[in-house]
Write a sequence for this structure.
């Protein structure tokens, strides 16, 4: 979980959600439900959203309000 970054709120929940999303992509890929042409784009989107707290809409970044 340290790889998710120090100082982030709800690190355990973020780790679980990240793992769940990656696992879901793996299962969908294995079942042929994610087209080969779109795999890299989808993985990049997932990693960018979770790894970059400054990415708009990222659950890892600051929340509005």
């Amino acid at each position: 979980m340290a790889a998710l970054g120090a100082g982030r709120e709800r690190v355990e929940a973020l780790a679980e959600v990240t793992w769940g999303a990656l696992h879901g992509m793996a299962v969908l890929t294995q079942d042929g439900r994610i087209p080969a042409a779109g795999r890299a784009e989808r993985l990049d989107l997932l990693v960018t959203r979770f790894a970059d707290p400054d990415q708009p809409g990222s659950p890892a970044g600051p929340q509005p309000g």
